[in-house]
Every structure is written in structure tokens, then in C-alpha cells.
Amino acid sequence: MTPDPHIYIHTHSLFLSFTHSHIQIAENVLCGIERNDTFSVLCDLIESNNFNLTDDWSNKNINWTVFAPTNDAFDRLDDTLDGRLSDVPEDLLEQILQFHVVKHEKLLWKDLPCKAGENLITMSNGKNVRIKCKDGSPYGIKGKWNNVTANFTKVDFTVCNGVIHAIDDVLFFNEL
User: pLDDT for 81-126, tens place per residue?
Assistant: First the structure.
């Protein structure tokens, strides 16, 4: 008998399946972000502001792809802003967060476009990001105002209504 390559953990309302580098969370996108310590700053920003994201992201009838900046990414941004991340106007912060999500699409890592001229993705705020690839494989994502590419640190955190990809930088569509 071949051993099952999965490790299963079942708690009250959360079912996790671990296989090699993939983590599957049988919850919605918002819960996937909330239950992962890597994204606690992102989660706090979503919850501490009066955004319309919470209801949308937890809606199991809408598919999402989230390019989620890690806590380290937000810490570097806060350092760049001399500790003034909390001073960024709420409407601009919401636009920045919307620049990290694609609504109505569940884009797994293997589905991210690499072909030149076809590697732009329109985000929820209507602005485009560019998927960066090497040898036909995606390695990162870049906003118009990012000096460097945000690298994928983990990919394909799958949830019932989407997928989350961890990135090591915050994406910008405009100068901050």
C-alpha cells in the first residue's frame, strides 16, 4: 500500500491538508488570511478600517486571487514611511489593498500568465500588475510604482473561494 502524502488536521470548522509546499485551507479567502500569522498585519489593516472588503472576501460565491504581502513586507513599508503607515489615508489604503486582489478569478501559480504581452492582470481597483517570469515560470509580481519585483514566497494557499499567494513586498499602482 502506498502511503498517503497528505497530512490532515481537522478542527472545529477548519480542515487543513498539507502536501509538500502546498497548504489547503477549506475556508474563505478572508479566513485564510486571518488564520495565518504570516499575514497578521494585512488582516489587522483590513479589520481596523471601514473597508467593504470583509463581506466581499468572505463571500463563498465569489472567487478571489489574493497576492498577500507578508508581515515583513508591511514592516519594510512602515520603515520607509518612517513609521507612518497608520497615517496613510483610508481611501488610499483601501485602493492599495484592492491592488492585491483579483475578483472573480481563482488563479493558481501554474495559471499565472508568463507570455510577453499577456502577462498583465487587472486587479480589483482596475489597475494592472505584471507577472514576472523566468524560463516560463512565474517568480513574482510588479506594480507600476514598485522599483523591484515582489517575489512569491509561498503559492497556492487554496481556499473554497479562491487562492492566496504570499509576496515579499507591497504592490503600488501609484506613488505613495
Answer: 888 888 888 888 888 988 999 989 999 999 999 998 999 999 999 9
Domain limits of the chain?
A: 7-111+151-167
Contact 33, 39 (CB under 8 A): yes
pLDDT at site 41: 87
State the pTM of this model.
Answer: 0.80
CATH number for 7-111+151-167 (one of 3.40.50.1820, 3.10.20.310, 2.30.180.10, 1.10.150.170): it is: 2.30.180.10
